[in-house]
Write a structure and sequence with these properties.
Elements: H1 4-7, H2 16-29, H3 38-57, H4 60-70, H5 75-95, H6 106-119, H7 131-153, H8 155-166
Helix pairs in contact: 2-3, 7-8
């Protein structure tokens, strides 16, 4: 199996931007018009390999599949494996005999949960709303109001809208 990372002269952890830059650099370096005879054939073969490598590594899905086939483990895969291991541990704890766990009352469990949430509050950071988010919200409200106004003035829905607004 060809190692596309070696062909593009990048590391296995290279980002999409690094892969694209390496591809463009190699394409410029090995321009077939700069070579003749046997060297040109070698360069054309090299460029075919480079284009093949780029077509695989530039597509996220194909890159993940290639890494899997190559036996490489990405950060995302490691995180996914950790999540799976945590879920397995949680399931084992739930299925453990009740003797190991002390039975807590519903009030005690809710109290523990609220303490946990309160203790984690300083870690929770709210993001400031962006201008585009605010504009999108205002646009959505405007559209709803416009639709309501249109429905109010259509004779067929006028009675419904009056009863809805006046709550009769």
């Amino acid at each position: 199996m060809k190692n596309y990372y070696e062909i593009l002269e990048v590391k296995e952890t290279a980002s999409q931007l690094e892969i694209e830059r390496a591809y463009k650099s190699i394409i410029k370096r090995y321009n077939p018009n700069d070579f003749s005879g046997e060297a040109r054939k070698v360069v054309e073969k090299r460029l075919a390999d480079v284009k093949e490598a780029y077509s695989i590594l530039s597509d996220e899905f194909l890159k993940k599949q290639y890494n899997k086939d190559l036996g490489l483990s990405t950060e995302e895969q490691k995180i996914e494996e950790e999540k799976i291991l945590k879920k397995i541990e949680e399931l084992e704890e739930r299925n453990a005999p009740q003797k190991k766990k002390k039975s807590k009352g519903m009030f005690q469990e809710m109290s523990d949960l609220s303490k946990n949430v309160i203790s984690n509050l300083p870690e929770i950071k709210l993001k400031k709303p962006s201008k585009t988010g605010i504009l999108a919200l205002l646009a959505a409200i405007g559209i709803v109001v416009a639709i309501g106004a249109i429905l109010y003035f259509i004779p067929f829905t006028n009675g419904f809208m009056k009863s809805f607004l006046l709550m009769k």
